[in-house]
Amino acid sequence: MESKLALTVDGEEHAIVVDNRTTLLDALRDHLGSTAPKKGCDHGQCGSCTVLEDDRRVTTCLSLAVAHDGASIVTASGLSGDDGLHPMQQAFIDQDAFQCGYCTPGQICSAIGMLAEAADGSPSFVTDDLAEAPSLTDAEIRERLSGNLCRCGAYVNIVAAVKQAAEEGTA
Questions:
Q1: What residue spans in the chain does CATH classification 1.10.150.120 cover?
Q2: Start and end of every 2Fe-2S ferredoxin-type domain (predicted)?
């Protein structure tokens, strides 16, 4: 069975027809040509397919496209604007937070979503005081990004990039 979907991806509206079993990742890559979300593990364990939907992280390899009909999705490609790179993208460059770059789009989207979650006061496993907004310690950042793997091991620089963007208050 197939369904017609309306998706807004990186500010551009699309109408597509997909098999109801199509993942959001496959709809983005195969039907819309978006190459920012990557197919890594295809089991929701590596985070390379992460995008933002309403400022929330979505692991697209685990999400059926039909569940996102009418959604507004932002991939790492849609983060930059006329005035340049998104602050998180710039922080990743400034802190040399990537090596091969395969996981980087998912890492960046996840980091932006994670900062929004922290700003909303959502605790993580390592949050010390549940009555206050979490402070973004290295441990807090690592815990919140633990669903995003970097096979090259650029974690120290990824944490530094997230801290830079958070400190600038522009992420």
A1: 87-168
A2: 3-79
